[in-house]
Queue: 2 jobs
Job 1
Amino acid sequence: MVSFSSDYTQGAHENIIKRLTETNMEFLAGYGEDTYCASAKEKIKAACEAPEADVYFLVGGTQANQMVISSLLRSYEGVISVVSGHVNTHEAGAIEHAGHKVLALEGVDGKLMPETVRKYITDFYADANHEAAVFPGMVYISHPTEYGTLYTKSELEGLSAVCREFGIPLFLDGARLGYGLMSRGTDVTLPDIARLCDVFYIGGTKVGALCGEALVFTSKNMPAHFSAVVKQKGALLAKGRLLGVQFDTLFTDGLYFEISRNAIEKSDKIRKLFRDRGYKFLIETVTNQIFIVLENSTMQELAKYVTFGFWENVDKDHTAVRFASSWATTDADIAELEAALELLSPQRK
Amino acid sequence: MVSFSSDYTQGAHENIIKRLTETNMEFLAGYGEDTYCASAKEKIKAACEAPEADVYFLVGGTQANQMVISSLLRSYEGVISVVSGHVNTHEAGAIEHAGHKVLALEGVDGKLMPETVRKYITDFYADANHEAAVFPGMVYISHPTEYGTLYTKSELEGLSAVCREFGIPLFLDGARLGYGLMSRGTDVTLPDIARLCDVFYIGGTKVGALCGEALVFTSKNMPAHFSAVVKQKGALLAKGRLLGVQFDTLFTDGLYFEISRNAIEKSDKIRKLFRDRGYKFLIETVTNQIFIVLENSTMQELAKYVTFGFWENVDKDHTAVRFASSWATTDADIAELEAALELLSPQRK
Amino acid sequence: MVSFSSDYTQGAHENIIKRLTETNMEFLAGYGEDTYCASAKEKIKAACEAPEADVYFLVGGTQANQMVISSLLRSYEGVISVVSGHVNTHEAGAIEHAGHKVLALEGVDGKLMPETVRKYITDFYADANHEAAVFPGMVYISHPTEYGTLYTKSELEGLSAVCREFGIPLFLDGARLGYGLMSRGTDVTLPDIARLCDVFYIGGTKVGALCGEALVFTSKNMPAHFSAVVKQKGALLAKGRLLGVQFDTLFTDGLYFEISRNAIEKSDKIRKLFRDRGYKFLIETVTNQIFIVLENSTMQELAKYVTFGFWENVDKDHTAVRFASSWATTDADIAELEAALELLSPQRK
Amino acid sequence: MVSFSSDYTQGAHENIIKRLTETNMEFLAGYGEDTYCASAKEKIKAACEAPEADVYFLVGGTQANQMVISSLLRSYEGVISVVSGHVNTHEAGAIEHAGHKVLALEGVDGKLMPETVRKYITDFYADANHEAAVFPGMVYISHPTEYGTLYTKSELEGLSAVCREFGIPLFLDGARLGYGLMSRGTDVTLPDIARLCDVFYIGGTKVGALCGEALVFTSKNMPAHFSAVVKQKGALLAKGRLLGVQFDTLFTDGLYFEISRNAIEKSDKIRKLFRDRGYKFLIETVTNQIFIVLENSTMQELAKYVTFGFWENVDKDHTAVRFASSWATTDADIAELEAALELLSPQRK
């Protein structure tokens, strides 16, 4: 059955499979010291227009978040995030497990506003008892956000300015970064992100790879002996080639951007299917995630034909569900969804 | 200058100083294995009407909170607290430092309502993705709360029922427990607390001791080898007698309750001083903490005569401040405050 | 240049690449809930003759060690290991980072002897002050060991008996388990291991996979909500299929054992090459790792033709180096090594 | 019964009790911000001849060790200690619980030799695979050691030189520092220690105080926001006056040194009692701890008259026991011991 439940239900882009096959029997150094990792890093730095950046490959997103946050914060610092931020809600407490509080602030459409952050930090230092509270030591944002929304360049500049004013890093979780960069509405480029953030990652797992996230430290701030830190958390991959070959492929001839654009185009088609039939959207999004509010009975019937994701309960009769397109979504997949919706539409649309 | 800034600005009750002096040169076993610790434990169990409880002495409140929460939770669990709970706001992230998220819920007058907890836990398990979130593994409350308010017996019974329904412990932070038990309005007794909570502590630091909190595990749930756990966190006192003698004294002839009552009586007099002069209260309290909203200029002038605590900014012209009475507050102290208020009153009351 | 530096210098067995390719575009559930993970688990349980075991896939060995040890130990417990154990020497302190001491005992040929363990635990409990020390809470062994040696069935039975006597789990690190099971001299089978250990893992990374270790909990002792624990440490793979497909392939038609046997056969040929030329062995091994003591000048010359691993300094003129065969080693690789040795042999053998 | 089992079996020096009583009802700031803490810090800095040092008071020794080590090490670093070091053996794994490995090296008479440390660090960096091991990030020593022995000034200079060569701090655990400084044989002064170490502490718990250790950071290396770090570990004392008054008293008119000298004088008398009667010493010590090897039957009989400490089993018929004198030991105590030994001596001496 065709699945729109997430953007990680299928394997890897065919070019990646091909390159893994071609390079399979080469003798390569372990632990990310191989030539493909080196090549991939150079290509990523070029795409970021950040020749002085440090790039490091990790396996997954929660791992990347935990590693960045715990290795850059001091013990008495926490990380500011919007309430709906992935680190605050969907990582089984990974940040706290690493010893740090998530300082969760209210957002707007899943986004953290610069003025919210400035006020929080200003109030913190204005409180005479702040030594007994958790120091704000980093700002974490997701782009796209957990709600599929995007920061504008102006908002990112605002966040960056606040962070630099208070001397704390701005960290951007780019698990779905490609889908943000290729969104029609955005005015944010990869070099913008590299310029405005202190550290971010380019997600592979959800954008064409079997696994892998490319961490980019933009301001000479990669922690010393970072490999030892990664090893210590059990996150150092012996066959680092698995990550190197994948990212080298994704950043050859713009593949990462091309397949991201596919997801956006397909998501537009999905949006249209729902909009044409009068369905209600939980929130307006411009990336590959689409949140629809369904009557529970409709949800159950639709689930017989296609797979999609539970998002949240709306009220006792309605549920918000998620449809995600991806690098791999085809017109045939969309056609299956359309057919399923047609089967529903006589009764309830 | 007389200080009302907190209830820990003076040393220990004279009986404690006397007993420390009298027992000073006795040869006693270390690490809480002495006879005074043993005697104090028996007296506390008797006062709690909980003969099967386990009592353990620790030095301070944040230490007690961290120890209880981290030793009773599983790694993937967090602790539910009201947003204003001490563990969420004033412990420098001690709970997260020990690896656990504080699941902060909205309260009423600083109190966590049973229905809020039930709804949170019910919703948690209803969410299909809850394995990626933090499991609610304990409920933490303060009594009195950080706002000086008190749970009713009915509220405590409600919280206890929810916790038992879901099989998680109810933990009561009693850093100021004496002041709650001796409050005029309360219908909650120490045996009630022992019956309804799985673990709680009887605060000494703020109620007549130089230091010390008496942890009470009420349901055969003291962790195995708890002394090793305490030692491992650097919290095992070599001369445990310091805690044993103090609590043995506090629980001899009802001293703990008697000195707690003094604080309540004195707080009533302080309340009256402010009320008679038309000052505004931030919140109505029935224990030893009184929160007054002052004009900033008044605050600055009053600070020339008596010491009190900053609580929070109200608006640009007003600040909430805290006046705390204690086991040691005298009528002479109150008279000094009255005189200071008189000096202010011609201009602004 | 041909490399014998380790058994993880090449990709994955061709069957694995083939199956990854074939299954690539299938829609599959994430986080290890897919059909290939399920199928692989059943095959592994069958191979272990342990129908009641729980199998869980992780990405790497240090991760597996850290996860097992930290999730099974209580906070005040440490893990017993031989001094040369991987957890004690080559994991950047991952076990301590997770809060636990490695209790390192002397071994024999890299192996921990049952009587050593029994004496240690007996002495521990005999010490009146043991509450201030670290409790022995688990026994960790590697099979093959870090020195390429193997436990006999009798030794494993001895260790298992000690562990069961004291009620602590026996944990076997099988990062190279295949090479141990297929060694000519061994009397230990996979079902023996499943019967005698409480938890162990079957290494994929070093035995034909791109990555992956199959954890086997044999005694209904997989921690509750283990996925949440794994997620919390950043170790939960979104596309769990990557591990499922690989292990499903490795345990189809005995592939795991067949390719392990290849490494053993090739290692015998390598041993012969060195033995025939009079080289000195650091230690006699029966698995895929061979440790040779070379004059430093010989080492430098040989390094021009083939790649091998540094092991340890022997004295100022000699170094121990490691030659590892693997699932992928070919006769052509061996011929290259032979040719290289021939180039050296006139001068120094 | 008179006890020689340790140096923390009695309360506090009478001057301390007197000062605690006198200052008891003063209104003082909390959390170590009071005037007595300030005064005590100045006196300690003067005694150390280290006007630029930072002094911080903590409650206990394990707490101090854990706090210093965990706040100064980076996550991938461990602390070098002699095998018998307190942090390696008697703290229930507190250092590992805080995430760091104790790198235990062999010593001489309980002391770590400079050349041992230099060789270890040199070998570490010479190992090509050292990124997978734990980096040596600090050297920990006890003075007096756990065996009652003392470093010479030359040995301390050697350790200091190694540490500075490799850019890592030298940390001296002075839980019994007074007894080391007042030992007859020593050529080490308190200013020497302040000059040669980067951080150390002056023990109060075992030298005349009810509790308390005075941490001295000598090289502008007190971690930023150290109070927040201390709070986060539950180690910040609300009534810091308890520590301030005690250390202010101990460092008034040389009391700390005077009472330490008493312990040394009394220990000489105890040594003489045993030596005159032909008892065997486990090790020759020059401080307040004396280790005697007793036949088990003698040990049991002697225990009827005086209390002493178990140290270690020697063989099946003999046990090493510890007699400790202290700041409080009197000639009357010694006379009791002598009388007890006389009761034994006819049969076995």
Note: The radius of gyration of chain B is 21 Å.
Job 2
Amino acid sequence: MTVSDSAVKIGELSLIRHIRSEFSSALLKDVAIGIGDDAAVLRVGGREGLLISADTMCEGIHFDMTFATAYQVGFKLVSVNVSDIYAMGGTPNWFLLTAAFAPDTSEKFAKEFLSGVKDALDLYGAGLVGGDITSSKSGIVVTGIVMGFAEKPITRSGARVGDKIYVTGALGDSACGLELLRHIMAPVELDKDNGPDRPMPWPAMRPLIHRHLMPIVLKPSLGASAASAMMDISDGLALDLRRLCAESGVGAVIYENKLPMSSHMLAASELLDKDPLHFSLCGGEDYEYLFTSAEDIDTARYIGDITDTGLVMIDKNNDAKDLADCGYVHFI
Amino acid sequence: MTVSDSAVKIGELSLIRHIRSEFSSALLKDVAIGIGDDAAVLRVGGREGLLISADTMCEGIHFDMTFATAYQVGFKLVSVNVSDIYAMGGTPNWFLLTAAFAPDTSEKFAKEFLSGVKDALDLYGAGLVGGDITSSKSGIVVTGIVMGFAEKPITRSGARVGDKIYVTGALGDSACGLELLRHIMAPVELDKDNGPDRPMPWPAMRPLIHRHLMPIVLKPSLGASAASAMMDISDGLALDLRRLCAESGVGAVIYENKLPMSSHMLAASELLDKDPLHFSLCGGEDYEYLFTSAEDIDTARYIGDITDTGLVMIDKNNDAKDLADCGYVHFI
């Protein structure tokens, strides 16, 4: 999933920089937080805290119908959007859906996709209020738009020198699950034992594959003002930590031996002859949360500290090195 | 632009019916108007009137890079979204943008597209607050999300028997402009005289082509409670009137000789050997407004009356016939 810089034809990051400089205008009425965080924070009726975010998933880029089902794509679209609301310390309330289906998309496919959307919305307690169904020239492109509320939104920009860095769960499971799917090259039924003709026993693969195909995101359990900065980990810890530090104007040091990795992911990496550290740092779509706090937090994993400047990882040999410049860049 | 029913592989309308029945759940908190109108109407802080709508445009379906420029596509995306807010009697305030660019999209293209978005937002007085930039497998797919406010939202469902039916401007210009572009088969510079090697003189074609490539939408000038029902005309008068009547549970009669058609459109239709009535009834993307009112309205064109049931057009010979079952169906 890592995209080397040389392959990046138009840098997503450079375009976003362009947008932030071009669009920062006097027209931004009642905007507490605009472009550049997990969600925008808007003021309505004098009250801050209306959140909105939009995320697009494209066939062949964000999902592959070789191994995903329509239901899973619908479910995942909602999860990745809700993740942005949770990452602001908010609660989702409303959802809009736009879907451009391909000319050969069947009605059965469309209805299964919608069923995944519905089950996920029911799970997260949000309701569908609108959208647009249309046709694409080729390939399926779906966009979720989620709105919610946060009493006290948590941004990416509040990290301060001396804060501790935390993540809410294991890293690399989703990227490792995707790698397993590339060996299987067929849709899997997540609720069935998928038989013995697999690279490893199904119960050991299932959590990884489930995490990739149909992530269920959890609201981070934090005290109201525990986190000084927060974001979801959607493009890999290394890239997302880089973003959080850039927004906060700080640096970071993290410790390789403190990065949480699941036993399933470690076993699968060995079998696949892949580096689990690469999955953890550079693999996208973890949909866990990265946050900073001046406090000691029991409910998350401490992985490092906010510093003045620089992005450093202390490896297993206690050597300091630059944090890998990797991560999932969407716009290649 | 008309899609015959036989060509409709999955009916957009049937899918939307499916969505409306499947997704009407107890989870719809603080939703005054949900799926099925130009925009959803939400309650925030006990106050009704937050509007949100999303519209997607796909390359090869909604726009054709054979004759559109990136700037025009960006501008149009904002206009068609703002049209949904104006159609509710609202004012736009915030905008989100998602764009899936193709692998061969250049940075120049992306920046020109963004420039069109920005100029349109400046024109309508809305600010960009977020979105998502990503990559598609092939073809460009862009989605606009617009939020606004209406003190007293005007829905599609308020038309009552005896109300008069109005439209705010000429019909068929955009569809006729598209037909002209299909003869030109190249991008045109809207602000230049495009020379003599054209199917008709540029000053006569320009308003039609401009209307198609880069529509500028106007807020309907209506008294606060003059309209009983309203919607924008995006898929052709015949289909959109059908939708308004269905939502209101009424019928309609319209008069062919009252349909407003521009002199440019009439001249171009003659040259193209096309029926101007077909452009007016069945052509999409007029982005004028269709509304009903119990009052006499000077600022719009009276075209018919709301009846109990049925959809009838009185033609030029004073014969009553069923209103054409035509219009632009997006999901083919």
Note: Residues 107-124 of chain B form the longest helix (18 residues).
